[in-house]
Amino acid sequence: MKDIPHIAKELFGDNHPAQCNGGHIICLNCYHCHLKFPDQIYDPHQGLASVIDATILKAETKKEEVTELCKTANQYKTASVCVNSHFIPLAKGLLEKPVKSCTVINFPLGASCPQAIVNEAKAVLEIGAEEVDLVQNLSAFLSGDYDNDLQCMQEVVKLCKKHKALLKVILETCYLTEEQIIISCLLAKKAGADFVKTSTGFGTAGATKENVTLMRKVVGPKIGVKAAGGIRTKEQALAMLSAGANRIGASSVKTILQ
């Protein structure tokens, strides 16, 4: 397999050296440079709860379940509660600071047309989502149309910056080779995303330590790495953090934190 700098140069040319310590080595000329931002590395002194996105995204979710999850998130002071966009107003009304509202778009297939993705981003931001987890345009990416994938991310980044919202790009690593994971991370970073994320939890597999380590190596310390999918115990969560993640997506919040 080609190394990370080689892949970056093939994608973006032999630019001047990067200062953000990403594995790409060359500057990606990112849409939103994170160089002056603090490192996105997990600090155990923060406490585990502070980096967990308490998540409920199943199709059969009911109002009562979201209400209960918000109560749990408030109790433990998790990073956010991640729900399907129908429940954003409910979550916004229940959550207490510092817990943020989070939702997903182009989810879970990553197969919507660019305009639909942008319109969905506008809609969720206008009703108050503070964090957005976007499934990259997998249909475009796996067809080799990297420009389309990058443009979709950039348009959503612009909207998120306008609304002061955080953007996490879901790669759905179970469908990708190592080289494709590297390329996806580079595209997300260049687009200006705040995080790269392993999985939707709806694919054929979830987060692995190996993929988290690779993603962290690619993006460096200035971009967040979220591990999600199949993380159900405290031991699994801590293993992902040790591998390089600084955010965990999980539905088994009480099990992990008790």
UniProtKB/TrEMBL annotation:
Keyword line: Cytoplasm, Lyase, Schiff base
InterPro entries in UniProt: Aldolase_TIM, DeoC, DeoC/FbaB/LacD_aldolase, DeoC_typeI
Membrane-spanning residues: none
Pfam families, alphabetized: DeoC
UniProt main location, coarse: cytoplasm
GO biological processes: 2-deoxyribose 1-phosphate catabolic process; carbohydrate catabolic process; deoxyribonucleotide catabolic process
Active site (catalytic residues): 133, 197, 226
Protein location: Cytoplasm
Gene Ontology terms for molecular function: deoxyribose-phosphate aldolase activity
The enzyme's E.C. designation: 4.1.2.4
Catalytic reactions on record: 2-deoxy-D-ribose 5-phosphate = D-glyceraldehyde 3-phosphate + acetaldehyde
Top-level taxon: Bacteria
Pathway(s) it belongs to: Carbohydrate degradation; 2-deoxy-D-ribose 1-phosphate degradation; D-glyceraldehyde 3-phosphate and acetaldehyde from 2-deoxy-alpha-D-ribose 1-phosphate: step 2/2
GO cellular component: a single term: cytoplasm
Function, in words: Catalyzes a reversible aldol reaction between acetaldehyde and D-glyceraldehyde 3-phosphate to generate 2-deoxy-D-ribose 5-phosphate.
Family: Belongs to the DeoC/FbaB aldolase family. DeoC type 1 subfamily.
Protein name (database record): Deoxyribose-phosphate aldolase
UniProt gene name: deoC
